[in-house]
Amino acid sequence: MSQQVDPSRIPELESVVALTLAEARKAGASQAEADASLSKGLSVTVRLGEVETVEYQRDRALGVTVYFGTRKGSASTADLSKSSVRETVAKACAIARHTALDECAGLADPELLATEFPDLQLDFPWDITPEKAVDLARECEAAGLAVDKRLGNSEGASVGSQRGVRVYGNSHGFLAGDCASSHSLSCVLLAQVGDDMQRDYWYSSARDPVDLEAAAPIGRRAAERAIARLGARRLPTSKSLVLFAPEVARGFIGHFVGAIRGGAQYRKASFLLGAAGQQVFPSWVQMHERPRLPRAFASANWDGEGVRTHDRELVHDGIVDGYLLGSYSARKLGLKSTGNAGGLHNLLVDPSQGAPDQAALLKQMGRGLLVTELMGQGVNGVTGDYSRGATGFWVENGEIAYPVHEITIAGNLKELYRQIVAIGGDIDLRGGIRSGSVLVDGFTIAGQ
């Protein structure tokens, strides 16, 4: 195989997948699916002007799943040669013959498979050399360190570029491939006055490198954020309004996404068990799944099983419309796949009326906590209990008063989601959940 990773490789991968399916059929499998992929990447990190790492990555993979009736077996390999394909299929078949019967096992229903494949503009190569990446990282870090003499140290600036091509096929006749890219530039700086040391970061990421924020502004933003955290204090324990900045608000919304996944529902391991059709958010909250947004990070024409993706109103007037289902979880629940095998495809969270920015939300909050970073994994997906370490800023009279750290914010997500006060129009586009700042009442802040 050649060393290129671009759309020209799709026919090669299609032949690998076709061979895999043919071998599975020959071995007696009643159904089979295969996913072949190639990827390459470059990652460079510079710290205090010196090159710290230059990493090349090149991967290839083939995963195959076979079904003998309702018995399932899977195997994978990094070798795409014909002999390895045959060996991998044989291993998957051997596993399937020894697994338990599962009436929900099997491929996606044929009528749900994707048949149209519009160009979602997901692939933008970046012909950047390691030398140019180093120069870009140096520029980013230097711009940040130059902001203030209190910035005497750095965890580095990094440039990353990834590109991958993938083909999926199954024995229902589905066979399709696509190519996608992802590029990023980030910087982490440390500010210090005496024994008080604070760190903060900023980054940009995009499908197309021309959409990346320029290097110097990223460094300066990281610097300003680190300086702003100097002199951080602890807070007394209290009840308070909390405003999540956009970069952390998507995580707060992400717990809802996890709770409505099919796996959490059929295992009865969700704090929103049976939530479809129920009011979970205030009546003005709207959330939409938009799988085919051009250049978006979570866009796709089909899911991990070849099921076509489609626009959905996931939350309408605060009511949950349904779950995120692949074929297996759908059958477990007596439902149909929603095209979410492998995950969510671009969740858009509508802002409040008037699309307030963060400054307007601070004014609306009046007094409370602006959270800019969260730590720890203190979220119970079964009960909804939420407790995480946080840093940010205390707000008085609608203005930032001083930085805070070493605090914990806690509550129960079922209650907190109902107590969302407002959502900002300052939407962060750097992930699969697109949300602005989120203002929530009812948090307990545990501090001194």
Describe the structure.
It is a single chain. With 448 residues, this protein is an alpha+beta fold. The protein folds into 2 domains: 7-228, PmbA/TldD superfamily (PmbA/TldD fold, 2-Layer Sandwich); 238-446, no CATH class. The protein contains 9 helices and 17 strands.
**Arithmetic mean pLDDT:** 96
Query: Tell me, what's the shape?
Result: globular
CATH architecture of the largest domain: 2-Layer Sandwich
Q: What does the radius of gyration come to?
A: 24 Å
What fraction, in percent, of the residue positions are helical?
10-25%
Structural class: alpha+beta
Contiguous low-pLDDT stretches (5 residues minimum) are none
Number of domains: 2
CATH topology of the largest domain: PmbA/TldD fold
Outline the secondary-structure elements.
Layout: H1 10-26, E1 31-47, E2 50-68, E3 71-77, H2 82-96, H3 130-145, E4 153-170, E5 175-193, E6 196-206, H4 215-228, E7 238-244, H5 246-259, H6 262-266, E8 287-289, E9 312-316, E10 319-320, H7 327-333, E11 347-349, H8 358-365, E12 368-375, E13 385-396, E14 399-412, H9 413-418, E15 420-423, E16 433-434, E17 438-446
Parallel strand pairs: 7-12, 11-16
Antiparallel strand pairs: 1-2, 1-4, 2-3, 4-5, 5-6, 7-17, 8-9, 8-11, 9-10, 12-13, 13-14, 14-17, 15-17
